[in-house]
Amino acid sequence: MSPRGLHPGDVLTRSGEPVATVRDYRGQTGRTGIRPPETMGSSASSQHRYRVLLATDGSLASEWAHRWVARVRWAEQPTVDVLTVADSTVLQPAWLPATLDHQLVELTGVLREEAEAEAASIAETTATRLRREGLTVTATSTYGLPAVRLLEHIAESTPALVALGHRGQSDVDAMLLGSVTHEVARYSPSPALVARAPTDDGSQLPRRVLVVVDPLTRAQPAVAWLRRHGWLAGAEVILMGMLGPSPGLLPGPQSLARTISSQCRDHATSVIERAASELQVVASEVTSVVRAGHPLDACASVAASSRADLVVLCRPAHDPGRYPLAEKLTRYIDTSVLLVPADRSAPNRPGGGPNHPFG
Question: Which label site among 253, 283, 288, 333 has the fewest CB atoms less than 10 Å from its CB?
Fold first, then answer.
């Protein structure tokens, strides 16, 4: 039976120092017990463990998100919350004759039960596999509009990361402007990893990280997130400065256009090189590159040539719709993309701030 007067979660102290904690321990005895002093440190850290939301629908793309979560080099192992949403839209026909109303109600009830059962099975199967890989995992399923339910869950649980595949079960869904992945990546207040297929060698991820630094958003929040969670340890980092279209493409004196272009490139190169020097202490290798031209083309080109397995950039927190590069990257390049919302207290302005090499 439980120690008299103690309850799970109570901390026992001696001379003001914690020596043990009561836990709801249902091991071989099946009774509440006291955690030994030597495990006190791990108990305390687990209470403050950050959380990762893994959204899955059982698709191949969801499997890629699963592999990323399992293979990332975490600074501190997170708790992974697996969530599957049974999509309600398939049970809501747009045109319904009144004569079929009562029949449809009965049919949709049965179909909903089947969809919810399948969603629960998918979530638990994914969670079981992650547990076998040594992660602490919870499994949850729900019913409704997937994007809405996922964003509600994110708002309530405030995970450190949301991981999901670049598309769902249907190829048609990926072609729609309002697909689940892109809605979540666009509006999530937490960083979102849109996963593509990682390498099959089982190595830790990421191995090569391309960090995009452009005039509109500042890369510092993204780099801070990567460092805090251990993703840069031992990785190769490529810092890419985005200049945008060349001024020479605009009407006006070509000499002035060349002067502006040269000054912009020199400034961007200086900023990127100073930023690279800061990352030498955590990354295995840091290189820098500055590109002009269409942002999407430049990102795709550098990602391919550097064989990056992750592209990272900030997106505006106030108005995500004003930054189409983030959405285009998640749609059109074959590399996993991590979108980190910029600090809401910092204005999104060209040029960034003068006191930090990332803007």
Answer: 253
